[in-house]
Amino acid sequence: MIQREIINKKTGEKLIMFEDGDFEYEKPVKHYGDGFIVKQMVLRGIPNEELNGEKEPTEKSRQIFIEATIHWQEMLQKFKAVEVPIGFIKLFGTNKKAEQENLLKGQILTPDILMGLLIKADELGYTISQYSSEFSQKGFDLSKMPIAYFYFDKLGFTHSPVYIPSSLKMPVFYIGMYYIVFTVFTNI
Fold first, then answer.
1. Rounded to an integer, what distance in angstroms lies between the CA atom of residue 90 and that of residue 103?
2. pLDDT surpasses 90 at 109
3. 102, CA 20 to 30 Å: which among 43, 46, 142, 181?
4. pTM higher than 0.85 for the full model?
5. Residues 6+ positions from 114 with CB-CB distance below 8 Å
6. How far apart are alpha carbons 150 and 159 in whole angstroms?
């Protein structure tokens, strides 16, 4: 996990971003749960030496870890209760692009529904993989690009990032910090 900090020079406010590197065939609930717990540990002040195992964790750090784990379990239960629209669930049962596009018409994918979908994918035996690639167009001044922005697909969905079965035959990606990140489901 990569941690980046952007400091507003005028206000002194700090934006802390966490970014996953590339990964393959991971269980969605475990992957995002582990990431959530680590982010909570970092944000609540556990020193890097303790996170990296260079130093023995203090009692305070152990308590932060326990609280972060409990918080994740509470959030997971709430996300499991989210009703995922049937159109998204039916995506796992077809590999025909036209049928998948019809299932997605009129659907709204909120962050809560996305997490519900990831949990459902995990329950159905799917894993996720994420691949990133850096690109630069000729004659394009990268210093003038925004820090992050959203991608809208031809169906009108906002991706930031959004995970849809690889059988869609179309990459779903998030563009930010000059990277394209591809994430796919795999049923193993």
1. 7
2. no
3. 181
4. no
5. 162, 163
6. 6
